[in-house]
Amino acid sequence: MSDAKWHDQAREMWDSGSRKTIIPFFEQQVPKGDSVLDLGCGDGYGSYKLWHQGYEVTGVDLSHEMISFCQSRLSEDIERLKFLQADMLQLPFEDQSFDSLMAINSLEWTEVPADAFKEISRVIKPGGYMVFGILGPTAGPRNHSYRRLYGEEVICNTMMPWEFEKMAQEQDIEVVDSMGVYKQGVQTNHINQLSHELKQSLSFMWLFILKK
């Protein structure tokens, strides 16, 4: 399997775009060889990159179409990388099945994120690390909910980074580290002098490492 087999857009996001810092951020805390649940894996390129860095990865997505796409990209010589269709509110795994977790831009789309967070935490071993990427106020999908102002039903991001952080703390999950991802044009000197809350308010996405 090669990078060329994956969607061009996904490759661009993970290799040089908004998700390029996620895997290095993940590797700062999560030991190589860990079993990792990649929740909301989409077309699976993030899962593939984790596997390529030495992790045992199970990619899960709600979409049958996405999982079929992921599975079609696997070759017979690939071990320790698999994909499964499932709902994050009812994961088909025993308690403490995985060492670690990655969930990028997925938890915030659930109707009740606290319920999803509890279910996700259930399948991670005590002491395991959970890396979340939560879309910030400047992310495009946030703007796509505009038509709700006209009474139309829309799929809306239900949670902001500061809300996720508060929820994790209220469930006694330690926030080990975090960092912001910003749109092009935002320079380090623009944000360094801002408070934590204001940095999150300007973010495209906020990355968190939690420890169960």
Automatic annotation (TrEMBL):
An example molecular function term from Gene Ontology annotations: S-adenosylmethionine-dependent methyltransferase activity
InterPro entries: Methyltransf_11, SAM-dependent_MTases_sf
Domain Methyltransferase type: 37-132
Gene Ontology terms describing biological process: methylation
Keywords, in A-Z order: Methyltransferase, Transferase
Name this polypeptide is given: Methyltransferase
Originating organism: Alkalibacillus haloalkaliphilus
